[in-house]
Amino acid sequence: MENKCAIKMENITKRFGSVVANNAINMELREGEILSLLGENGSGKTTLMNMLSGIYFPDEGQIYIHDKPVTIASPKDAFDLGIGMIHQHFKLVDLFTATENIILGLEGKLDLNNARKKVQEICDRYGFDIDPDMKIYDMSVSQKQTVEIVKVLYRGADILILDEPTAVLTPQETEKLFAVMRNMKADGKSLIIITHKLHEVLEVSDRVAVLRKGEYIGDVMTKDADQQSLTDMMVGHSVTLNIDRPMPVNVTPRLKLEGLTVFDELGVKRLDNVSFTINAGEVLGVAGVAGSGQRELLESIAGLYPITSGSVTFYPPEGDTPQEMAGKDPMDIRRAGIAMSFVPEDRLGMGLVGSMGMTGNMMLRSWRKGKGVFLNRKDPEALAQRIWQELEVVTPSTNFPVRRMSGGNVQKVLVGREIAQQPSVLMTAYAVRGLDINTSYTIYNLLTEQKMKGVAVVYVGEDLDVLLELCDRIVVLCGGQVSGVVDARTTNKLEVGALMTRVGGGAAENA
Amino acid sequence: MFDFVSFFPRAVMQGIPLLFGSTGEILTEKSGNLNLGIPGIMYVGGISGVIGSFFYEQATKGSAMNGFLAVMIPILCSLLGSLLMGLLYCFLTVTLRANQNVTGLAMTTFGVGVGNFFGGSLIKLTGSEVPSIALSNTSLFFKVGLPGGNAGWFGQLFLSYGFLAYVAIIIALGASYFLNHTRPGLHLRAVGESASTADAAGINVTKYKYLATCIGSMIAGLGGLYYVMDYANGVWSNNAFGDRGWLAIALVIFTIWRPNVSILASILFGGLYIINIYLPTPGGQMAVKELYKMLPYVITLLVLIVVSLRKKREDQPPAFLGLSYFREER
Amino acid sequence: MRKQSLFHISKRDTLPLGKALLIRGGILLLALVFCGLVTTLLTGQNPISVYGTILSGAFGTSRRIGVTARSVAILLGISLAVTPAFKMRFWNIGAEGQTLIGCLATTACMITLEDKLPNAALIIVSLIAALLAGALWGFLPAFFKAKWNTNETLFTLMMNYIAMQLASFFIIVWEVPKGAGKIGIINQSTRAGWLPEIGNAYMLPILIVAIMTGFMYIYLTYSKHGYEIAVVGESQRTASYAGIKVDRVIIRTMVLSGALCALMGFLLTSGVDHTLTTTIVDSRGFTAVMVSWMSKFNPFIMIASSLLLVTMDRGASEVASALSLNHSFADILTGIILFFIIATEFFITYKVTLRKNSKKEA
User: Fold this and answer.
1) Which residues have a Cβ under 8 Å from the Cβ of C272 and sit 6 or more positions away?
2) Which of A398, A420, A442 is a domain's end point?
3) % of chain B exceeding 70 in pLDDT
4) Which of C151, C294, C329 comes nearest B117 by C-beta?
5) Phi and psi (nearest 5°) for A353?
6) If pLDDT is split at 50, 70 and 90, which confidence band does A382 have?
7) pLDDT tens for residues B31-74?
8) pLDDT score, position C166
């Protein structure tokens, strides 16, 4: 063997309750290489890596680091072995400065001045731009990520694991990150990058390992791989999406957004003068890098996010007088007779109550109905039964807590309930995230069905292929602004990808 | 006019138990444990010292007491008693992940019960022939002040206290230095701010929670000991310690989790506790005294409100306060 | 060599109800045995006779049964009162103060309006005053929590002592005789403002709390308010999403909680003790927090929990007086039982298994 192994995992199995997250995984990372760990959402990539960083402990199997068998029982063990992981959710103490976070967990006498110097050195060497004394709560997402990377470098880790580092970065920042990764490789460090973006895999890594549904599928040298072969490995069979997309009929404006501007709690502008129209009888896609204002857009329309300026005008299907929605909360909107359904990104944290069963969750939309102080349980129960059967939800009963259901079933409950409201506007955020292919298609078909019924459907998505095949028009957001509105049938991935990373790129040319 | 020279030392003596209690609770809360058992722990700290000293006094009856033993036996007993309480709290809330509020309240019920039970029944249980627990001999050793303690106003104001009072101030300063200028202090604050982050950084969250809570309990327990041995001249009377434990928790909020500020604030609270004796009561209304005693709580409440209004990140309670941490949560 | 935790802890899927009950019952038995041991150790009595004394202390005579039942009712009432707030994950530990302020308001009406109103009107005015005072004590922390996210645990804790000092203040204002530092029995001769007795001195509070138990069960399980509370407790974002006005629910629920605590205070002063002292609530506001929590917020389980704690409390007092020991003995036993119950929850929620490969050789 020409290269020694930095990491070798043998028969690693991890279960959570009855769910097998990783099943007998055998995988290795060679010294001085960049390995891409590729897989769909929910394929077990992060769980596997968390066992290397000491967050989880494998139920079965053995890990070798530099060919020595080891037990990684805690993150400290991982550090001692030279393993550093940069998590997708940053592990930083908001209240501390960059330096304090970087030295957190180290031993020896506390010497902040010396530490600050060392941090500055690392920053200078790689061209990172952070102030060592800045508090984390004052930092942007990419600054926080930089702190995480500096933290690992500071500790002199020789094995680095990056968990979807580019999801929150702009293309320029991504390029910078890749340059740093190549530098580190040149220094003899071994790196694993978790991702599901194929072009990044091809650009930065030496070798690709693929996971699917908790199983290790195999590995391939990057130079021998292309997008098609990797997709095949990742999803098991070649994907031609073939989403059924009928031509829209009776397209009329349903919601008009004009000059919508919102700020978050910290006073950061999240939506900047956003204007576009959402039509009845259409699926309108919303594309953008994560955190470009998608969440704020949907929540402001739904009355869950304070609108600083601008208007959201609703044109009722019956052709009555238009109504202003800005400034209304969800109950006001409902009372105004506007049937709006919303499938939020955070299913269990916002769309559903995890500890309640299907019936209790149906009541989220209907609890106020009926006179008097008592709840109507009968109708929600009937609705729950209907959704249970029609959407083939796997659950022992309609009272089984939805938190214990699998992701796909949770989403069926949520989407089923929202569609049952007979909406005139249906907004969805990342409706197929983490779902298997079959459930995803169920969702696509349900959305298309709604469109043909004359509902105005909004689909916020991350997978461009899906956006291009499912939607009629696509609004592209970049940094809280609309960078373009395109016809999904005539545009292509390149055009949308370019708009996602460029502000004001010919805004609203095709209305 | 208001006699400051006689008022101030009394305020200090009222404040010292609160200072012990709040320093202990601050260390505990910095680890994310909201220990509402502190009032109970202070009772246990007091009664444990009393029990130790009671047996020592009984054993040396008639003969002269060794000053070192007379002080060390109660202190060690007190520390042991509070340590056991701290361990119990940690075992339930950290190892068994029980609800902190419920556990703390149960500890207070239990601790106050232990204090009053042994305080009331010690003589009966041991079959001794003394009329009441009055450890005045031991108390004398605790009350030894610094030289010059009764010479002039300066001596009275600053040198007249028993040694535990100075210990309290040293511990508070030490705790303050520990939290802000040492590595374990930084780690402890990280545990309280974000246990998952601390864990990911390789900090042993469980160890820090146990250590901070147990050491915090022992410090708080000394407050109970100081109260009996110094302030109350070695006389234990049931419920005399009163609501000082809760006042210590109020002090934690009042000082926005800063032990060094607590030194002065505890004297302020102590002063408010007794100021009614010094201030004129309008129209001879004795009842107004009780309103003065309300002041520490009202002021604390105002601080709590103002802090939450200002939203200054540095002044908020530790973000993980009251939550138990479980790594494999999913 | 690296150390590795010997135990593996994971969340249970669900424990069958029977098994959960078995574990709970077993632990409770263990707790009682342990209490017996502690008693034997401290008093030298044999544990069986100790439990005999405990039972006779709580249920020995019809008067004792009455007193015990009434005490259960009061503790249960306060526990019920704090429950809606807890279901909302609002850590109200201010029941002590909310109850006391109810006692104070009742006392104020009874003393100041003794001869100005007919008895029935006086009782009604006292009741309304108590409810309003309790509502205010609940409103304040809830308002600040809702508007500025002020920590409610610390807020309600402070409110307890503000209520206590207010009570001390008025006790001295109204002290009888002057300089006594206490109020004594209020309106002893006229009995103005005293709740009428139904059958005997114990029936009325018991009846009121029995009604309250049913009301609370229905309120939490079947009413729209109960549903709102459950959703807010689970996730405030979900609540907003469903059009629930979170701020309003928090405030409304705490006002209810505070008012119900004060209702118990009204019962204590007007119907049971006919006086006001700073210790009239006797830490039941804190015990109620534990009762509510250990009963998993279920009103019917709370009946059993309250009964257990009150029995132990009264029984242990009896043991203590029989041996002329201090009455705080009861608190020690209560504490021990609570510790056992608190610890039990862990074994019901989590599964602990010994690691299989913990000895695996490197």
Assistant:
1) C70, C74, C205
2) A420
3) 95
4) C329
5) -105, 110
6) very high
7) 999 999 999 999 999 999 999 999 998 888 767 788 889 899 99
8) 94
Same domain, yes or no: A156 and A43: yes
Mind telling me how many Å the CA of B61 is from chain A's nearest CA? 50
Above pLDDT 90, what percent of chain B? Answer: 52
> Between C46 and A298, where is the model more confident?
A298
More confident residue, C220 or B277: C220
Final residue of a structural domain among A197, A214, A235: A235
pLDDT band at residue C3 under the 50/70/90 scheme = very low
Whole-model pTM: value is 0.85
Q: CA dist A47 to A20, A43, A59, A432, B281, Å?
A: 11, 9, 12, 20, 69
Distance CA B312, CA B316 (A): 7
| Residue among A95, A96, A109 minimizing CB distance to B183 | A109
Q: Which of residues 271-310 of B touch C (CB under 8 A)?
A: 285-291, 293-294, 297-298, 300-301, 304-305, 308-309
Nearest to B5 by CA among B166, B160, B163: B160
| pLDDT score at A506 | 42
- Among candidates C223, C241, C357 on the partner chain, residue whose Cβ is nearest the Cβ of A350: C241
Selected for mutation to probe chain B from C90, C166, C169 (highest B CB count within 10 Å) is C169
Q: Which domain holds residue A400?
A: 356-420
Question: Does one domain contain both A220 and A254?
Answer: no
Interface of B with C in 35-54 (CB under 8 A): 36
Whether residues A367 and A384 share a domain: the answer is yes
For the cut 80, the answer to whether the pLDDT of residue A127 exceeds it is: no
For residues A125 and A230, state if they share a domain. yes
Tell me whether residues A304 and C241 touch, CB distance under 8 A. Answer: yes
Whether residue A205 is found in the same domain as residue A295: no
> Which among C8, C234, C243 has the least Cβ separation from residue A354?
C234
Task: Please report, for residues B10, B272, C140, the alpha-carbon distance to residue B299 in angstroms, rounded to integers and kept in the order given.
Answer: 21, 11, 15
| Domain presence at residue A243 | no
Considering the domain architecture, whether residues A360 and A438 belong to the same structural domain is answered as no
Instruction: Report percent pLDDT > 90 for chain C.
Output: 51
List the single residue in C10, C91, C350 with the smallest CB-CB distance to B101: C91
User: Residue A21 in contact with residue A178, Cβ under 8 Å?
Assistant: no
- B181/A110 Cβ within 8 A: yes
User: Do A272 and A134 sit in the same domain of this protein?
Assistant: no
Q: Are residues A407 and A439 in the same domain?
A: no
Give Cα separations from C54 to B4, C31, C64, C322 (angstroms).
54, 15, 12, 10
Tokens describing residue A426: 């249906």
Which pLDDT value is given to residue B328?
56
What's the pLDDT score for residue A289? 74
If residue A287 lies in a helix (H) or strand (E), which one and from where to where?
strand A283-287
User: Is A506 in contact with A484 (CB distance < 8 Å)?
Assistant: yes
CATH of B4-315, one of 1.10.287, 1.10.3470, 1.10.8, 1.20.1260: 1.10.3470
Is B328 in CB contact (< 8 Å) with chain C? Answer: yes
Which chain B positions have a beta carbon within 8 Å of A109's beta carbon? 183
Q: Which of B180, B188, B197, B256 to mutate to test the interface with A (most CBs of A within 10 A)?
A: B197
Q: How confident is the model at residue A505 (pLDDT cuts 50, 70, 90)?
A: very low
Q: Does some domain include residue A70?
A: yes
Q: What's the ipTM? A: 0.89
Which of A213-217, B83-87, C278-282: highest mean pLDDT? B83-87
Average pLDDT over residues C204-208: 92
pLDDT exceeds 60 at position B329: no
Inside any domain, residue A172: yes
What pLDDT shows up at residue C354?
Answer: 67
The distance of Cα A440 from the centroid of its chain, to the nearest Å, equals 15
End-to-end CA distance of chain C: 9
Please state the domain extents for chain B: 4-315
| Encoded amino acid at A508, one letter | A
Looking at the structure of chain A, the number of domains it has is: 3
**Is residue A345 domain-resident?**
no
